[in-house]
Amino acid sequence: MINRMSSMMRMIFICSLMGAISVPLVSATPVDLSAEWQVDPKYNANEAYCELQNMVGVNSIMAYAIIKDGNIIAEGYGEGRSAAGIYQPWSVTKSIANIIIGLMITNGDVAANDTLATIFPDPNDWINVSDAPAKMTLKLSELMSFTSGLTRGGLIIGYATLREELASLMYEEENRETWIYLRDDHIFSWIIYKVTGMTPRQYALSLDFFTKLGINETEYNWGTFGVEPLKLETTAHSFQTNVRQLAKFGQLYLQGGVAAPGGEQLIAPSWITESTTSQPEEGYPQGYLWYPTSRGYEARGIFGQYISVIPSRNIVIAALRRDCIGSSRGFIDAAHSRLDKLDNGVDGACPESLWDRVVPDWAKVGMSLVTESVFGDDQSSLDYYPSNHHLRSP
């Protein structure tokens, strides 16, 4: 399993596998996700915020938001970034694809045990597809946990036809039930389209899903592939939005699949539990396009993009990082280690860091990159990291 990962995949995944375990769903008291986040009294006036802000520049963080008990308690933005920005979370999109498929599961459109033969019944889609009989037996659950025996394939820009998609995927029977990550494959876009007759975005809009999460059409971009008249939204990467909206996807799962107090059951709780538990058995690094952790579960994207859900603390963290080398887990782990400090209020502005006191603004960008390459995940040096925009109101 491990020998199939590139060095980049190791950086992203192996260093962050923290004992994948089954995580019970802890239902938070639901908040209305269609509304703006309510602001915690300690919003950006707590010790955790002050310390995390000292990482924003040096850890190449574009943006982050922390939701506690359904209220936004901390958020920060790198130079030139804002709450209204639309940013690339890369493979976090896969976890959003899980949510779209969760809508389908809940509505009875598809089942986790459905095979590709059931999902793609047209024989024309299988013409000249290698290992077609074996691929037809693959279950949706196996595809979503990366244990299907598909070892490589997919195209970062997608394929124009389903037949090309299926032909691109290489199958190895001996690796069925072995976790092998497929980074660029958009098979879930085709599954959504063939089952519902709608593209992923069309299906979500048909259920008013984004409206129920308070995400309007100007607050996200969703990449597409294919050629007119059929262009499908991607499900491997490129659902772009901001950290406040990304946090709503995590909050939806945290509060058991309902988007408002007394609201309809958008996603079945059983699907959430199954998706965020190691599949097909304990010890695997992934659920269904979510990553179980010792704290809860995460959506992850290359270079350090995260939605982290911590049910025991009723907390969701969304963080986006620039596409660059260096520590990918540094910031999210620093946030996890400072959760207790969210309740420790501070009076007035955060203490100015040594960086802010002695380094001129023009020198900070270049020095940040140098410092990141030197310190990486070394949190002991946090006091010397740069501090950005100490926001006091959302």
Structure in a nutshell:
With 394 residues, the protein is of the alpha+beta class. It has a domain at 2-40 and 64-104 and 193-338: 3-Layer(aba) Sandwich (Beta-lactamase). The chain contains 15 helices and 13 strands.
- Can you tell me the CATH class of one domain? Alpha Beta
Number of helices: 15
Mean pLDDT, all residues: 84
Distance between the termini: 44 Å
Unreliable spans are 1-24, 367-394
Taken from the alpha-carbon principal axes, the silhouette is elongated
Give me the CATH fold name of one domain.
Beta-lactamase
Structural class: alpha+beta
For the record, the CATH architecture of one domain stands as 3-Layer(aba) Sandwich
Cα-based radius of gyration, to the nearest Å: 21 Å
Question: What's the topology here?
Answer:
Blueprint (H helix, E strand, L loop, with lengths): L6 H7 L24 E2 L7 H7 L7 E8 L2 E7 L14 H15 L9 H4 L12 H5 L3 H5 L3 E5 L9 H7 L1 E7 L10 H10 L3 H7 L2 H4 L8 E2 L1 E4 L2 E4 L5 E2 L2 H12 L14 H7 L15 E2 L4 E5 L3 E6 L4 E7 L8 H8 L16 H5 L2 H15 L19
Parallel strand pairs: 1-3
Antiparallel strand pairs: 2-3, 2-13, 4-5, 6-9, 7-8, 10-11, 11-12, 12-13
Helix pairs in contact: 3-8
Organism: Seminavis robusta
Protein name: Beta-lactamase
Keywords: Signal
Structure write-up:
- With 394 residues, the chain is α+β, with helices and mostly antiparallel strands.
- The protein has a domain at 2-40 and 64-104 and 193-338: DD-peptidase/beta-lactamase superfamily (Beta-lactamase).
- It contains 15 helices and 13 strands.
- The chain has helices at 7-13, 47-53, 92-106, 116-119, 132-136, 140-144, 162-168, 187-196, 200-206, 209-212, 243-254, 269-275, 330-337, 354-358, 361-375; strands spanning 38-39, 61-68, 71-77, 148-152, 170-176, 221-222, 224-227, 230-233, 239-240, 291-292, 297-301, 305-310, 315-321.
- Strands 1-3-2-13-12-11-10 form a seven-stranded mixed beta sheet, with helices on both faces.
- Helix 3 (92-106) packs parallel to helix 8 (187-196).
- It is elongated and about 70 Å long.
- The termini are far apart.
- Mean pLDDT is 84; it is low at 1-24 and 367-394.
- This is Beta-lactamase.
- Keywords: Signal.
